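**User:** My hope is that you can spare some time for a protein that puzzles me. I have put the entry right below:
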Amino acid sequence: MRKNSIKNTRINGEVMKELSVIIHNEIKDPRIHPMTSVTAVEVAPDLKTCKAYISVLGDEETQKATLAGLKSAEGYIRRKLAQTVNLRNTPEIRFILDQSIAYGISMSKLIDDVTKTIHEERDDDDVSA
């Protein structure tokens, strides 16, 4: 199975959906922040490994605690995933912190600041003329 095949894409989507449900509804670890979301999943073509990209709304300490909680519950999550998703092999899950949402927000804020500065300079030029 190729990496970008239709089957692999379908498996990625199904695993992502089930991981979200498991993290939100079944894990009772207090370290895991309630605003945790699975942004992407990449299952290897041989179904042995899986990278799960996790986004956590909160400060850096909250993100680290959530990642630690997910890593400690990795065996439980894998067992639940095996029960819900019918795959030949249940992949070993690696959780990776996804900073893309926070990066996008910070870039958007910088762009807004620049456009605001440009508009203020234009207004100052109009008043002085």
Notes: The helical segments are 6-25, 60-72, 74-84, 100-128. The CA atoms of residues 5 and 45 lie 9 Å apart. The chain has two domains: 6-98, 99-129. The domain at 6-98 is CATH 3.30.300.20 (GMP Synthetase; Chain A, domain 3).
